[in-house]
């Protein structure tokens, strides 16, 4: 790599870890980070540094973009449930001959006093809802299976209200969430059960603490299998990996 050119990294965003990594690399004199966002969320959190919005056209399109932009490394820091994007990143990086790493935060694990009912997907989660009203925290693109449960009142927390929107009560909010606020929301809506995905991380964990304290059942959607390749648990490890490559 010519001395005059900074080491170029594509960070596939959509997670708190991606934001942390972009923040740490913003203004770096040796590494130039470009954070790619899918553009699904209308109200996006402002990401430091260079940002690219929109898809790449599948793994072949991403591979071509990596080559055209002279990207030196890829950090897949998408959501733990973004299985297809992680697979596309691995395939595209292999095609382009670019090293790739996957940032995958540890999942939540049940604690004493928890009442988790673990399922594999949203259809199974909708069937497993044990009590109404139910607090849905699965994201606005995954609400459709729950609309079939006419016997359940749903309160769905989303960053953006979906369009069209199932006939639910919506709470538009972005994390991180704190315990007192979660307890107040549960009391305000008379919540008797919760559905969530095992995303892990501290930003949305307070609802699980609230459920434990109140004895509420939680329908927990398991994660898909992790992507193949190198896995690290957070932004600090990804930054070390980038530093090692850029100084190699």
Please provide a written account of the structure:
This protein has 248 residues and is an alpha/beta fold. The protein has two domains: 7-105 and 225-246, 3-Layer(aba) Sandwich (Rossmann fold), CATH 3.40.50.720; 116-221, NAD(P)-binding Rossmann-like Domain (Rossmann fold), CATH 3.40.50. It contains seven helices and twelve strands. The protein has helices at residues 16-25, 58-68, 83-96, 122-128, 179-189, 206-214, 235-246; strands at 7-12, 31-37, 50-53, 73-76, 100-103, 116-119, 134-137, 154-158, 169-172, 193-197, 218-221, 231-232. Strands 3-2-1-4-5-12 form a six-stranded parallel beta sheet, with helices on both faces. It has a six-stranded parallel beta sheet with strand order 6-11-10-7-8-9, with helices on both faces. β10 (193-197), α6 and β11 (218-221) form a beta-alpha-beta unit. 36% of the residues are buried. The mean pLDDT is 92.
In short:
With 248 residues, the chain is of the alpha/beta class.
- The helix-strand sequence is EHEEHEHEEHEEEHEHEEH
| Poorly predicted segments | none
Helix content, binned percent: 25-40%
The beta-strand count equals 12
